[in-house]
Amino acid sequence: MAGTRRGLRIAVIGAGAGGIAAAIRLRERGVSDVVIFEKAGEPGGTWRDNTYPGITCDVPSHLYRFSFAPNPDWSHKYSPGPEIQAYMRKVAADYGVEARIRFNSEVLSATWTGGGWEIVTTQGPQGRFDAVITAVGILHHPSLPDIEGLDDFAGAAFHTARWDHSVPLEGRRIGVIGTGSTAIQIVPAIVDRAEKVSLFQRTAQWILPEPNLPIAEEKRAAYRADPALLEDQYAHLAQAFNGAFCAAVAGEAPEVYARMAQACRDNLATVADPELRARLTPDYRMGCKRLIVSSLFYPAIQRPDAELVTDPIARIEAGGVRTADGRLHDLDILVLATGFDAHHPFGDMHITGRSGRSLSETWAKGNVTYRGVTVPDLPNWFMLGGPNSPLGNFSFLMTAERQLDYVLQLVDLLRDGRASEITPRPEPTAAWTQALKDKLAGSIWASGCRSWYFDAHGNVATYPWSYETFEAEMKAPVLEDYALSA
């Protein structure tokens, strides 16, 4: 039986895509007392932080958008980063989200005090909140390589998520450490400007060729004139991308997987020099690491002013990078394309649950969640993009919206007075976690490679089932799996 409707006060942590969507959807639900805590000075999340040359989304533009905010004006099949950031800011402004954001307010601690969460930020105590929705993302704490002498380098050195645009690239000798999606985008974008680009590769990557063609003005005009065309395109891409591409990597569409693997091999065959091609050939199955999409990298790395370095890095010196063969690679600029710490999404935030135990203690041997959204011992704590959410080659905006649909149904219980505390029960959490591990053990991600999906304890922090399974899980909470306190 429904109780008395409550006026909830909800904290949202992070003003990226997930936080923007949460504020908009909460207001639609009649929850207006919402505060978004953002550590930076503007919204946008990863698209605010990452401004490196060549940054492009590797999910098709018309799938990488909010379902409620179609955009007919994307310029390319895969949108450039600045265009996505402009879209995020526009949506936040159009829906009045920015007025709810407290900028430059990094959350330092969240403590359950019985009946609510006490939030403290870099701006001081922020009071009590009935619930917290975290939208911090997982790719925002840069991971720096543990290489001897990193601080000895005499030139400019920076992580890709902290790109220093005051440093000119023209005529410089530039070293890039790493071969993930970011490095693969950067090399073609800077090779024309640099005297030389040296790419230091630890692991070769499978690369799916996909030209990033511009979207013709005629097509954009048609989208503007007929919004139904945009919706049809969204639905088509969702099926093609999630129903085929992502299902193939999840092991649920073998014929599609075979075609994708062959496309990667055919792409690799375009590297003319057999010795270079051999060094660019991965020794693991396609999909074990996050699949990279690019039609520009192989032409760029074959240029005379680009070099692939596969000898291990011994140390970094004032003048450059010395590899294990004794060679010093002279550099003026060192770019660290070394990714992010994906397994500590809350960074140094101190989170204390009902038991008085900190989340960092609870997760000391690996992150444990219930369906990637809730955590035992943390009442009314809801996560978008939490551990074991669909990552990698999915549209994060679609993922976040599905999780938000689930979270809002739990918020409804709080709003309508049917519960004051909602916490996943330990037994269903353990059962889901075991099913996750069992599925991952036989998945492509555990087939024999090193990747950022693995934490320090060997746990794989991705979602091993199809997107259709994820959508079904997120359709409605199984309330029997939750402890609901009146």
Reconstruct the topology from this structure.
Elements: E1 9-13, H1 17-28, E2 33-37, H2 46-49, H3 81-94, E3 101-102, E4 107-112, E5 117-121, E6 124-129, E7 131-134, E8 156-159, E9 173-177, H4 181-190, E10 196-200, E11 207-208, H5 217-225, H6 227-249, H7 254-268, H8 274-279, E12 292-293, H9 297-301, E13 306-309, E14 313-317, E15 320-323, E16 328-330, E17 333-336, E18 350-352, H10 359-362, E19 381-383, H11 396-415, E20 421-424, H12 426-441, H13 467-475, E21 482-485
Parallel strand pairs: 1-2, 1-7, 2-3, 4-18, 7-19, 8-17, 9-10, 9-17, 10-13, 11-12
Antiparallel strand pairs: 4-5, 5-6, 14-15, 15-16, 20-21
Radius of gyration: 23 Å
Enumerate the strands of the largest sheet in spatial order, edge to edge or round the barrel: 3-2-1-7-19
Oligomer: single chain
Number of strands: 21
Largest sheet: 5 strands, parallel
Helix content: 25-40%
| Gap between N and C termini | 11 Å
Average pLDDT score? 95
The secondary structure category is alpha/beta
What is the strand content? 15-25%
How many helix segments? 13
- Model regions low in confidence, pLDDT < 50 over at least 5 residues: none
Instruction: Tell me, briefly, the overall form.
Output: globular
